[in-house]
Design a protein that fits this description.
The chain is an all-alpha fold and 389 residues long. It is built from 18 helices and no strands. 56% of the residues are buried.
Amino acid sequence: MINPTAGRSSGNALATAAAIFLGALCALVVNTLPVFLTVLGRTLSLDEAQVGYVALADMGGIALGTILCAMVPRMLERMGWRTVAMVGIIVLIAGNLLASQANGYLPLLAARAIAGTGGGISMAIVYAVLANGSNDARNLALFNVAQLGTGAIGVQFLGTIAGNWGASGLFLLIAAISVSGLALCLALPRAAESEGQSEDAQEEHQRISGPGWLAILSALLYFAGAGAIFAFLAYMGIAWGGSEAGIESDLSMVLVAGMAGGVVSAIVGSRTHFALPLYVGYAVLIVAIVLLMTVKPVGQFALLASLFGFGWNILTPFQFAAVTHADSSSSAAMLVNACTLGGIAIGPAIAGNFVTADFALVNAGSLIASALSLVLLALALKWHAARHY
């Protein structure tokens, strides 16, 4: 007997795989951010505050692109997910080409914001595809593994590329790699499956609830705090006595540890309720931040930074599952990505102005933001439960 769902399952698997690799491509700068920023700072003679604003431009652009998609679901329905994702890739390529020709700091910021906006448009579709199924935590965990895998490879070459061809060569290479994203867009679904739903039900599905907004705010705080540490990890290691080459090599290990966290999350997936691994992830992350605040010899840098990366990537997929549990609309799923990159944009921009020799203020701010995130997410889940049970 022919299984009537077999074709759909195969199509969903292909779409999920395409979305994962498309997202990894769009997040290439995000996942190499510590080394990307130190390389730009060294190549273009920028200080910590200036590279923090480069991160703000890039990550803020991604957040803006995602928010634009989340706020206009009707437009997405008319254009279709594939077309919107392709538009995003084209803007991403254009932004990197402009960055390669930028002849000053402000033009560079503008070009990075354009590139980020394009990446954010495509990433919004990626998150919508990953949430359009029954195993969103596992899908996002696999996405994290793919992102960190490409990041671990990328950090090995950024310094060499910029050293040989300058920042312009780096941006041109990113533009060239991004062209492959156009082919990946073709495998995405046209839009979310909505068989059996009335137009009114679909419209209601797009409205973000009160618990959803609270969970989204929790994600923003979490990524602002964690993003501040992630962006300045290389600077921390160097400030504590490590060499530039040694610390950049250590960061490849950090990304591998993050991949391990993603693999653990993918294995756990939907086998258990998201709450236990969610709170375990928060605990590991907070312990890692406390240790980074109190243990600074460079000999422990790789270990502590790897613990941070491991905790981050256990937590992130289950936080996504918690947000989509509190609010199942695709708009909420897209805004998780906006908060992810918006937080990573805001965190480094703020932290860059509070850098001290021991980076204590940066770590303390991250600790406070992470603790507040945990409290808000717990309240959002309790609010959702009170409304539906």
